[in-house]
Amino acid sequence: MTLPSSTENANADGMPAPLPPAKDMTALLSRAARNRNPSPLKSLIKYMVYPDMISLGAGLPHSSTFPLVQLSAVVRDNLETTNQADATYTSLSVMPGPFDMTSAAPPPLDSVLQYGNGRGIPSVRAFFTEEIRRLHQPRYADWDVVATCGNTDGFLKAVMLFCDAGDAVAVEEWCYPAALETMRPLGIVPLPVAMDSEGMLPDALRDMVLQRSQDRPLRVVYLVPTGQNPTGSSMSVERRRAIYAVAQELNLILIEDDPYYHLQFPDGEPDQLLPSLLSMDTDGRVIRLETFAKVLAPGLRLGWLTAPAKLVQLVQYHNEVSTQQPSGVSQAIAAHLLLKDWGQAGWQRHLTGLRTDYRRKRDLMQAVCQRELTGLCEWTLPQAGMFFWFKLNVPKALRAEAGYMQRIFECCIDKRVLLVPGWQFAVFTPEEETTLSEAEKSDRAPCLRAAFSFESADKVEQAIVRLAQVLRSFKCGTE
Amino acid sequence: MTLPSSTENANADGMPAPLPPAKDMTALLSRAARNRNPSPLKSLIKYMVYPDMISLGAGLPHSSTFPLVQLSAVVRDNLETTNQADATYTSLSVMPGPFDMTSAAPPPLDSVLQYGNGRGIPSVRAFFTEEIRRLHQPRYADWDVVATCGNTDGFLKAVMLFCDAGDAVAVEEWCYPAALETMRPLGIVPLPVAMDSEGMLPDALRDMVLQRSQDRPLRVVYLVPTGQNPTGSSMSVERRRAIYAVAQELNLILIEDDPYYHLQFPDGEPDQLLPSLLSMDTDGRVIRLETFAKVLAPGLRLGWLTAPAKLVQLVQYHNEVSTQQPSGVSQAIAAHLLLKDWGQAGWQRHLTGLRTDYRRKRDLMQAVCQRELTGLCEWTLPQAGMFFWFKLNVPKALRAEAGYMQRIFECCIDKRVLLVPGWQFAVFTPEEETTLSEAEKSDRAPCLRAAFSFESADKVEQAIVRLAQVLRSFKCGTE
Hints:
homodimer, 479 residues, alpha/beta, 3 domains, four-stranded antiparallel β-sheet, 19 strands, disordered N terminus, transferase (chains A, B), Aminotransferase_I/II_large (chains A, B), pyridoxal phosphate binding (chains A, B), Pyridoxal phosphate-dependent transferase (chains A, B)
């Protein structure tokens, strides 16, 4: 595999026409990003082009001091089968070989055990690049990818590109809490934008941005467009286009956090995936975050960030002085599996198996919920991801009793069913954080999040039966 | 192996006396650290104590969706032998097994492939804890360890515990550049403290701290005490005690970055390691950073941070919203190797082999340097690490020619020998950064760093011969 060219698309004559470059987003950069420099020691690498150069420059341990001399893994090919007897397996081995940070072939052991270059191992980047080209076909020329330690790491680095202390970020009104806790210690203020079942409302986003003072404009929007956490909603194609149009109109950066992209199970075409915001991006204003967490394993801590090359370079500089790069062992396993031992065919078979598995679990959850929860709460059938979001039909009398959501949650615990209470995903303004009581905060969010990814079918059924008992005991759905 | 108790030491009667707790360092915390909170979703874990609880809470993929079903490695036991025929090998295998985040046994595959807890896998933490207890015997009760993605990650998190934009950190006058580039984008100002061959000078540190204004006091000192990068110097026991005394006197935090701790090769007792600053710390003011980068492999991206438990908890919160934890695959390899397949005996044999290997390379470099460079430059024989630091004997006439160090460096490149020029390690004040020219900056640092860790013996010899030719051509050592 070679790094693909992304500078071509077809014009009206069917001839390849060059894509335009990304727009210059320099004016939006944070102070921290403007002050990022390459690691000084890495600037010496350019002198290594001379074949007769002897380097006493790099403070690297020699690979002869690395005790690992072979790394192997056994991988199950076919998740879609539940019959253990049908399982087939692939083996991969990472063997010793000379250090090489230029080859796009799956790396030898010496390359993955040594220090890297802040971008990820070339073969892993080649895989990421090919995935982006194949699935998202970016519409500007100078896009690039950089390895991250997963989307939590990627989000931190994306938000630090554009935000200093005191800046604000527009987020979905029900928001992934780790994103909020990433921003708050840095003094970055998340501001909630209203959603409907198709995600963030474009007009609400526009209104919020226009209300901000011009000396501290809002520059960044954080979105989970597919199988959103916690609501399970997926933005429709039209909604994505409308949000992108607002971003163009008001010169906003969109951070597209898309860990559930491959866990889509739409009605109709089973393998028809929604177009990403990146795929609509003609300007280079989308920072796309992807991860192997939900499609290979979270413990690999391996993901990638796609953006204009100038921004990717700043993320590389940030990597050099933080994580350096993801674990070489994780990268080696991904590279050998996806580029060699499985290849595209094995990868696609695996993804199809995953989608089949998640769809089955989603359908099972839906059947139980329709039987047990109809009338007690409302929900939208998720078309992606791993979450149902129950909006409780709270009776009027209960709504007057402050702290009722805390009591519903505690009653769930007593009944031995754990769901995540809605208030954990609520985004309060800095003023609300200090003025509202815990009871008031909880009552603002009469919702519960249920994951259908982890527990077995019979446990999911029992859990929903218990939840229904709790909601009935609070007279949900009456009046 | 169980997590050791660290609450006891022996008093004068030989009876165990309880150690005091760490002093409260809350007043020194940064705004960011004060605003760190636990990941909200992880606060639900406490409800999982009920055996009959069914959780739809955690948004985790089920381990049946992880394609990896076995992970194996082959490890070479005896680095000290250069004879391939003498090599012996150990194999390790990580097999499937139920998710368990409480056991201190080497983890099954399901545990390392799943999301972790921000602290590292229990067995890996148990190893770190035992190493700290055995080698450093902390002198306060409530110390703790947390896994990092290596010391670059650890340093970022340590400095962010105490420093906001505008704060200053005292550093060695010749300083590891990645540490400087970690701080500068965050608006944290490194201030150089004079060194001699035993490292940072305590009186110079005291003077600098006392000169700072009281509304923005200097609170943090960054040190590489053993085999310092770039000077190769190791702080003597007395120097360590003196620096710690200044830290106590002026209420400073010491960040002890010690990646070369195990690469010591002192004269006399070969395995007598210098006492760490942590081992002298009665107050809980030392943040100790260690890594497997130089003793197993950099590509594992696995290290650990030791500090009072309250500070470790804040680093855990920081992990939860950045790296989450090091790669589970890296952690699994370390845990199985060090706790099971090698155990302590294999680990000690490996470390002895490493020290033997580095000592041989150091001695070879020293012999060549004594033959070729005597008179041309000065250096101190390093007792640890991987670096020689050459202070050039620049003739008086050359010193008057601005930019001479740049010309010496370029001449080295022409002769095809790469060393790191001293200016890459120089710490300029913010004012100097803007007022000094590149030539002036380079001439402030008439030094070159040479690593003896990476190239083969004959290449090291050739490199030093070439360097000597360059230095003679500039008439170094004359006048």
